[in-house]
C-alpha cells in the first residue's frame, strides 16, 4: 500500500519538470478553475492547493464556483473564456452537460482538463483523477473482511457524477461473488441526489423503515454521505454497531473513525492531485503535453489521456501513518478529544 506514495512523487516530479519549462516565458498565464461546489471541506482544500501551486509557478488561477448548477457552470466557463484564460480546469457538476463547456472552449482555442470527475461524450483533452474503481474496491474489501456475511446497504452518489458509477462498479467487483452465494444480501441500494449529508440521512432512515432483519454494513460512497448515515445511527442509538465506509478523509469522518462511529474512509492525497493538475495546466498553457499521460480513460467519445493516482484505505490503525504523516490533518485536531 505504501508503494503508492513514491509513485505520486514520481508523477509530480515529471510534471514539475515539464511545468517549469513551460513557465520560462514572460507571457502571463491565466488558468480558469471551474469548481462544481466549493462548500464541502474536501473541495475547499483542492481549490487552495491548486491556486497556490499555479501562483508558485508564476501563473494566475481564476476560480468560479457553480454551486452545483450545470447551467451556471457553463455561463462561468464562457465568462472565463472571455477573460482570456489559457486553459480551463473543470470539476463538472454534470459530466454529460459539461460537454458543452468543452465545445465552447475548443471554439475559443482553449484546452480543457477535467479534474477528478470526467466529462463524458465530448472531445475532452485531458483528465486527472484517482483510480475511482479502486476506491469502491477498497471500501468493499474492507467491509467484506470484517463482515463477510450479512445485510448490506449501498448509498451511492448522484447519477450526474460519473464517479458514482465507478465507485459502484468497484464495489460490485468485490461483492459479486458473495452476493451470488447469498453470503451477503444487498437489502437497500440507492443513489443520493447530491453529495449531501441530509439527503443521505433521509435515505438511511428509509432503509431502517424498509429493511427487515437488521443492517450490518453501509457502503456510503463518501464522507458526506457517511455523515448522514451517522446522523441516522445516532438517532437510532446504533452508532458503532454498523460498519460505515466513506471517502475523502474529511476531518469529521476521521474523528468518527477514531471514536468507532465510522469504520474507514478512503484517503485520496488531494494535494498531490491538485499540484499535478496545476503543473499540467500551466504547462498546457504553453504547449501540448503529449508526453507523461500514461493512462487512457474512455469517456464515451474518445480515449482521454489521463493520470490516475492511487487511493489509500484508512482506519483507526493507520490514521497516523497517512493522514497525520502527510499533514492532511494535524494530530492535535484528530486526537485531542479521543485521548
Structure, described:
49% of the residues are buried. The chain has helices at 4-22, 41-56, 70-82, 99-107, 132-146, 162-180, 197-210, 223-235, 251-259, 270-284, 319-324, 331-335, and strands at residues 30-35, 60-65, 87-90, 111-115, 126-130, 150-156, 184-191, 217-220, 243-244, 265-267, 295-298, 303-309, 312-314. With 339 residues, it is an alpha/beta fold. The protein has two domains: 4-131 and 269-312, Rossmann fold (3-Layer(aba) Sandwich); 132-267 and 313-338, Rossmann fold (3-Layer(aba) Sandwich). The protein is built from twelve helices and 13 strands. The chain starts with a helix and ends with a helix. The strands form three sheets. It has a seven-stranded mixed β-sheet, sandwiched between helices.
The spatial strand order of the largest sheet comes to 2-1-3-4-5-12-11
Main pleated-sheet profile: 7 strands, mixed
Helix content: 40-55%
Q: Tally the beta strands.
A: 13
The CATH fourth-level homologous superfamily of the largest domain: Response regulator
Kindly give the count of domains: 2
Estimate the mean pLDDT confidence: 91
Oligomerization: single chain
Structural class by sheet pairing and helices:
alpha/beta
Q: Unreliable stretches, pLDDT < 50, 5 or more residues?
A: 1-7
C-alpha end-to-end distance: 27 Å
Number of helices: 12
Q: What amount of the residues lies in strands?
A: 15-25%
CATH architecture title of the largest domain = 3-Layer(aba) Sandwich
Radius of gyration: 20 Å
CATH topology category name of the largest domain: Rossmann fold
SSE string, helices as H and strands as E: HEHEHEHEEHEHEHEHEHEHEEEHH
What is the overall shape? globular
Amino acid at each position: 500500500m505504501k508503494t503508492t506514495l513514491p509513485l505520486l512523487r514520481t508523477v509530480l516530479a515529471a510534471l514539475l519538470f515539464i511545468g517549469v519549462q513551460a513557465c520560462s516565458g514572460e507571457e502571463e498565464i491565466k488558468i480558469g478553475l471551474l469548481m462544481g461546489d466549493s462548500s464541502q471541506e474536501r473541495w475547499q482544500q483542492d481549490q487552495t492547493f491548486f491556486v497556490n501551486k499555479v501562483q508558485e509557478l508564476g501563473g494566475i488561477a481564476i476560480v468560479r464556483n457553480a454551486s452545483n448548477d450545470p447551467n451556471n457552470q457553463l455561463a462561468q466557463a464562457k465568462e472565463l473564456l472571455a477573460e482570456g484564460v489559457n486553459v480551463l480546469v473543470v470539476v463538472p457538476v454534470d459530466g454529460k452537460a459539461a460537454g458543452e463547456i468543452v465545445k465552447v472552449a475548443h471554439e475559443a482555442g482553449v484546452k480543457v482538463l477535467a479534474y477528478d470527475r470526467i466529462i463524458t461524450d465530448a472531445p475532452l483533452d485531458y483528465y486527472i483523477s484517482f483510480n475511482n474503481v479502486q476506491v469502491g474496491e477498497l471500501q468493499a474489501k474492507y467491509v467484506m473482511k470484517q463482515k463477510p456475511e450479512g445485510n448490506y446497504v449501498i448509498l451511492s452518489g448522484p447519477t450526474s457524477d460519473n464517479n458514482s458509477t465507478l465507485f459502484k462498479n468497484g464495489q460490485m467487483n468485490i461483492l459479486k461473488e458473495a452476493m451470488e452465494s447469498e453470503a451477503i444480501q444487498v437489502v437497500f441500494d440507492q443513489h443520493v441526489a447530491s453529495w449531501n449529508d441530509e439527503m443521505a440521512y433521509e435515505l438511511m432512515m428509509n432503509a431502517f423503515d424498509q429493511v427487515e432483519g437488521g443492517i450490518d454494513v453501509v457502503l456510503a460512497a463518501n464522507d458526506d454521505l457517511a455523515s448522514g448515515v451517522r446522523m441516522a445511527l445516532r438517532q437510532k442509538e446504533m452508532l458503532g454497531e454498523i460498519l460505515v465506509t466513506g471517502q475523502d478523509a474529511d476531518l469529521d469522518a476521521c474523528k468518527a473513525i477514531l471514536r468507532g462511529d465510522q469504520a474507514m474512509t478512503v484517503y485520496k492525497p488531494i494535494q498531490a492531485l491538485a499540484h499535478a493538475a496545476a503543473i499540467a495546466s500551466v504547462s498546457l498553457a504553453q504547449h501540448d503535453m503529449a508526453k507523461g499521460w500514461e493512462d487512457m480513460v474512455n469517456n464515451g467519445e474518445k480515449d482521454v489521456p489521463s493520470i490516475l493516482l492511487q487511493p489509500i484505505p484508512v482506519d483507526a490503525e493507520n490514521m497516523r501513518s497517512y493522514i497525520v504523516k502527510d499533514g492532511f490533518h494535524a494530530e492535535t485536531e484528530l486526537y485531542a478529544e479521543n485521548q
